[in-house]
Amino acid sequence: MAEAVGRFVPDGATVAMGTALEPAIPFAAGHELIRQHRRDLTLVGPISDSLFDQLIGAGCVAGICAAWVGNVTEGLGHCYRRAAERGEPRAIEVRDHSNFTISLALWAAAWASPYVPTRTLLGSDIVATNPDLEVVDGVVRVRPVRPDVTILHAQRADAEGRAHLWGPLGISEEAGLAARRVIVCCEELVDPEVILSDPNRIFLPETKVAAVVHEPGGAHPSPLQGHWRRDHAAYRDYAERSRTADGFQAWLEERVLGVPDRAAYLAGVDTEALRIRTSLPSAPVDYGDD
Amino acid sequence: MTDGGHTPQEVMVAAAAREIRDGELVFVGMRLPILAYGVARNTHAPAARALFELGLMRDQPSAAFLGTMGDPPNVAGALWATRMSNVMALMAQGEVDLGFIGGAEVDRFGNLNTSYIGDPARPRTKLPGSGGGADIAILSRRWVTLMSHEPRRLVERVSYVTSPGHGDGPGWRARNGLLGGGPVAIVTTLAVLRFPEGGGEAELATVHPGHTVDEVRAQTGWDLRVAPDVAETPPPTAGELAQIRRLDPDGFWTRRR
Lengths: 290, 257
What we know:
The complex is a heterodimer of chains A (290) and B (257). Chain A is globular and about 55 Å long. Chain A contains twelve helices and twelve strands. Chain A is α/β, with parallel strands linked by helices. In chain A, strand 3 and strand 4 form a beta hairpin. In chain B, strand 10, helix 6 and strand 11 form a beta-alpha-beta unit.
């Protein structure tokens, strides 16, 4: 993880994360960005369930391009508030979207199109305050948003960068296609034969993938279908401790800066209570070709 | 608990559930609407389907408690697991009958602010943002918002319109090209406010058990009109309460924590 983030996410980069919404959020990658003191990032996503708040609080972020930033079960993002309201620890530029328009902005970039027209956001002040949106002839034009890097967490991948993600995809496909490069974090690193047995489930072309990181538990506290339940208590703990800047700093020291890597972080999590134990396999499909 | 043996949140969930008609496609948001869908589906609306913006369709509530729509039990048994833009496509085509939106601030015309209190360039309060709320407000055929009933939340005029309701009055949506019909009700911790057919200003329709018209008006930041036939909100039935407590067994959403 340290090498992937160090090589492919420079200061000032535009980074998409949390693209499946509440599940499969690449927290391990976000925490590594904080440990490497990355600065001036622009974060792109639909909703962000606490990860963007953490990066903002750590001073890594210059810009937000998203539909929602907070804590889904607990409410407001306290670091986001301090940054937007008081410029602490630094001022940030916010470009608000709706969930639909952030998807369309990424599709516009993926299609190399100057804009995508839509009727959503007509009558919303979001079009007045986000310069990437414009009403022309009764239609909203959504300009492209192109991530330098999209970071994803998937259930399984092979070393060539082919990944299987299942469950709801959110905006993961357009975020990956629109990006200059993709970092895939995975719960399981498997042989290519496993992935290639089901090419429909590969949600991105391998040509976009710059790095594959085998990072079990890398999405905690977010859920991952077939592997991890959502750790509601961890989100509540974060919400309470981040209420003040000092409380956030103590949380950051303990859970991010004070641990060298994800394995050490997970030592402080009751993983056995969160691990999914039931199995609900899908029926295999048959790609017979004669 | 109120005297009737149910919490304000349980009254809200039951009231929201009754907005769902059988056979409808419902765009379910977070928190109480997840419960409202489950209650409706397991009582009066067995053929109602749910859409979730992260990319799911279901025809029955999750078998286990949900903290978020992305929790694994909401995916198991889904009718469709897909990308967000596909779900939004159905709504853009007018195929979503009803949507739910949570609000921080609402005004008499049902416009919602979930973005900024004060100047957006230097806000007094930065709220989380639209999420899918603005999309639901503009594209669903009709929608309902749920919120805590306080004068600072039900305001004369929202300072920022994240999710447009009826704008500045009847006809505003059509003039501005908004496809869906707009808000039909505001379900609060104290009451249900309804909008007239064709849009316009909300008026007090029902008051929750244990509260009064005067109290509701005092807790509203504008001079709230009262419907001539204002009534009491029917309390949750035994069947509705049983569903609510099955879907939220520890009261995560429906008891004060």
